[in-house]
TrEMBL record:
One Pfam family recorded for the sequence: SBF
Keywords, sorted A to Z: Membrane, Transmembrane, Transmembrane helix
Gene3D superfamilies cross-referenced by the UniProt entry: 1.20.1530.20
Signal sequence annotation: none
Xref: InterPro entries: BilAc:Na_symport/Acr3, Bilac:Na_transpt, Na+/solute_symporter_sf
Bilayer-crossing regions: 6-28, 40-60, 66-89, 96-120, 140-160, 172-189, 201-222, 234-254, 260-280
Organism the protein comes from: Aquabacterium soli
UniProt protein name: Bile acid:sodium symporter family protein
Record has Transmembrane as a keyword: yes
Subcellular location: Membrane
């Protein structure tokens, strides 16, 4: 019963709070920047929504990983960029405005793309019979309620009482970070035996995927002749995922704890690669 309450109520509530705190940092002006710099946005969409799932699928095929763990990695790859990417972008002296804009756009696009990628992954890695039962429409509604609505409410509060929102944002962001850590701990604890056995296999794959996408996002942006600051930003935005959403989709929507393990593992190792990348790029972008 406690596990059911945690997966059906607490996890979605935590995710909604995290997305609300993200919304406090967004304004309509952030979306206007998209029109002003469409090339950077398009490159980001290419890297995050096309390249990331393809690279993840390729690495799964290369390693031979199948079943629930493979689906879990594909769920993670289908999630939007994590809100902490904005902090890493700031540390790396990247383009924070671009990071905010892309985070907002990615959160909206995911409402439509994630359900279909998850349904396909279930059909491919777990068998077509299971995929038939995936409620794509309901999943889209759930993703909207857990992501789109809280972000909109956060933006609405900032538009109504900007001074209050600016005071709340840093505090809520700290709380959201703590909640995220607790969610990861809860997901691992709930499936401790599986996690302990799978970690040696999943952690190298998770770190490899993270480092690969940091490099790919940066390289594609650089080859597209974006600025160094924008290239660094898109490298981070491509690799730092909303692992909390991956845990919610696996544990609440699909009700499979094993599928949540890759998201929990990635949620840990992505900060190792992301922070190292940010600190390295901080010198690379100095004065740019």
């Amino acid at each position: 019963m406690q596990a059911d309450v945690a997966s059906t109520i607490l996890l979605p509530a935590v995710l909604a709070f995290i997305m609300f705190s993200l919304g406090l940092g967004l304004t309509v002006a952030d979306f206007r920047r998209i029109v002003q710099q469409p090339r950077a946005l398009l490159v980001g969409v290419l890297c995050h929504f096309i390249l990331l799932p393809l690279v993840c699928f390729g690495m799964l095929k290369l390693t031979g990983l199948t079943g629930a763990f493979a689906v879990g990695f594909m769920i993670l790859a289908a999630c939007p960029t994590g809100s902490t990417s904005n902090l890493l972008t700031y540390l790396a002296r990247g383009d924070v405005a671009l990071a905010l804009s892309f985070t907002a756009v990615a959160s909206v696009l995911t409402i439509f793309t994630l359900p279909f990628i998850v349904a396909w992954s279930l059909a491919y890695f777990s068998g077509a019979a299971q995929a038939v039962d995936v409620p794509v429409g309901m999943m889209m509604v759930q993703v909207f309620l857990m992501m789109g609505l809280p972000v909109a409410l956060g933006m609405a509060l900032r538009g109504w009482r900007e001074s209050l929102a600016l005071r709340l944002e840093p505090r809520f962001t700290k709380v959201a970070t703590v909640l995220f850590v607790l969610v990861v701990i809860a997901a691992i604890s709930k499936n401790w035996d599986v996690a302990r056995t799978a970690f040696p296999t999943l952690a190298p794959l998770a770190l490899g995927l993270n480092l690969t996408m940091l490099a790919c996002g940066f390289a594609v942006a650089w080859l597209s002749r974006l600025s160094r600051r924008q290239s660094v930003t898109l490298g981070i935005e491509t690799a730092v995922q909303n692992a909390t959403l991956a845990l919610v989709i696996a544990g609440t929507v699909l009700k499979d704890g094993n599928m949540a393990i890759p998201g929990a593992v990635y949620g840990i190792v992505m900060y190792v690669g992301g922070l190292a990348f940010a600190l390295l790029m901080r010198r690379f972008t100095a004065g740019r």
